[in-house]
């Protein structure tokens, strides 16, 4: 199985980017992981929130394969603790899915088309975090999940 993380817009913070790269490298020891950035839209001042979501949604959907399991990071999604999230990933791996795609949307969320295509939604917290920070948190939680599944000491129960 491959895990892909899609995110809208690049990370400008070099320290944050270094941490993301560190966890990406660690995660690569456990599973094939792909982190893909969808470039920010240009000339968004002329677009309504709905138009922006629509255009971002088209870019997201264009990155998917027909067999992908699409999971949105969404404030209204299901929340897991780290052990529960590791079990969630294990279920996907056991199901024979080729690729699970997690998506971090743009500032206004997702278009209806993306919501309709999604196989699930998860929330990392009831708090709001920047789109830049969520990338790091998500990759770290993926790494943590695999250390839990392998009974490695990174996660203390």
TrEMBL record:
PANTHER family (UniProt xref): METHYLTRANSFERASE, RIBOSOMAL RNA LARGE SUBUNIT METHYLTRANSFERASE H
Major location (coarse): cytoplasm
Catalysed reaction equations from the record: pseudouridine(1915) in 23S rRNA + S-adenosyl-L-methionine = N(3)-methylpseudouridine(1915) in 23S rRNA + S-adenosyl-L-homocysteine + H(+)
Official protein name in the record: Ribosomal RNA large subunit methyltransferase H
Family under the similarity heading: Belongs to the RNA methyltransferase RlmH family.
SUPFAM superfamilies assigned to the protein according to its UniProt record, in alphabetical order: alpha/beta knot
Highest taxon listed in the record's lineage: Bacteria
Molecular function in Gene Ontology: rRNA (pseudouridine-N3-)-methyltransferase activity
Native organism taxonomy: Bacteria, Pseudomonadati, Bacteroidota, Flavobacteriia, Flavobacteriales
CDD domains tied to this protein: RlmH-like
């Amino acid at each position: 199985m491959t895990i892909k993380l899609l995110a809208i817009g690049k990370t400008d913070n070099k320290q944050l980017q270094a941490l993301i790269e560190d966890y990406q490298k660690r995660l690569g020891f456990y599973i094939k992981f792909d982190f893909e950035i969808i470039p920010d839209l240009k000339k968004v001042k002329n677009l309504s929130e709905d138009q922006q979501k629509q255009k971002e949604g088209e870019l997201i959907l264009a990155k998917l394969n027909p067999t992908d399991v699409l999971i949105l990071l969404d404030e209204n999604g299901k929340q897991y603790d780290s052990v529960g999230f590791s079990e969630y990933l294990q279920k996907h791996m056991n199901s024979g899915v080729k690729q699970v795609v997690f998506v971090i949307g743009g500032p206004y969320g997702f278009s209806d088309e993306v919501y309709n295509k999604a196989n699930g939604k998860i929330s990392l917290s009831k708090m709001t975090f920047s789109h830049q920070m969520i990338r790091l948190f998500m990759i770290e939680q993926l790494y943590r999940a695999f250390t839990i599944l392998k009974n490695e000491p990174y996660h203390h129960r």
